Amino acid sequence: MELRDIEIFLTLAEELHFGRTAERLHISVARVSQAIKKQERSIGAELFARDSRNVRLTPLGEALRDDLRLVHHGLTQSLERARLAARGKTGTLRVSLFPANIQELRRFFEIFRARHLDHYLPRTSPRGRLIERGADVNNIADIFMAVGMQEAVCLFPAHVARYYPRPDITYLPVKGLEPLAYSLVWRTESENEMIRAFAHVVSDLGLLPD
């Protein structure tokens, strides 16, 4: 299967409409239909169930879509790396900073990201494996820095908004979730008199106010 045929299949799998797929890829509807039929003949089964009104993936088509997404991403990234290398643009830029400096320095990162959006973070490993996007965090300060840099979102209990107001973070209520319950836990083999005394204090005071 050629790269263009993979792009046609994945786009149709997303749009589920031959006309929109053709428009998005700047090709004819006939070219889309021809590529899909060619793929189905090669595989020996239908990838899409279609009639005059609807187009949907078959179970086989869904499995192929999931497999080809990674393959296509790896191929396109490999070609992009080759193009960049041909222009002398290689390597990865890593910058460290203290969370306390994020507000003062964020404009440098925002402008850099705007000018080099496709290469702000590597999308694949050196061997071409897709890297799931996500910030590497180890504590609450790391989380705040990642969210403040618009690299992540995070769910927090409501009281965090009271104790950690920040100009670069907006707290929004999430509706429809069950209340988040807190419990005091400890390892059974480590239990001692002090732990039991603290547990009694927690039990006596009860729930925290909203």
Note down, in words, how this protein is organized:
There is one protein chain. The chain has 210 residues and is mainly α. It has two domains: 3-86, Arc Repressor Mutant, subunit A, CATH 1.10.10; 99-163, no CATH class. It is built from eight helices and two strands, in the order αααββααααα. The protein has a two-stranded antiparallel ribbon with strand order 1-2. A hairpin with a 4-residue loop joins β1 and β2. α1 (3-15) crosses α3 (29-43). The N and C termini lie far apart (58 Å).
Tally of discrete structural domains: 2
Measured between the Cα atoms of the first and last residue, the distance is 58 Å
Please name the CATH architecture of the largest domain: Orthogonal Bundle
Any idea of the CATH class of the largest domain?
Mainly Alpha
Largest sheet: 2 strands, antiparallel
Query: How does the overall form come out from the CA principal axes?
Result: extended
Any key phrases for this structure?
extended, single chain, Arc Repressor Mutant, subunit A, two-stranded antiparallel ribbon, 2 domains
Characterize this entry briefly.
The protein is mainly alpha-helical and 210 residues long. It has 8 helices and 2 strands, in the order αααββααααα.
Which SSEs are present, and which pair or pack?
Elements: H1 3-15, H2 18-25, H3 29-43, E1 48-50, E2 55-57, H4 59-86, H5 102-115, H6 140-148, H7 160-163, H8 193-205
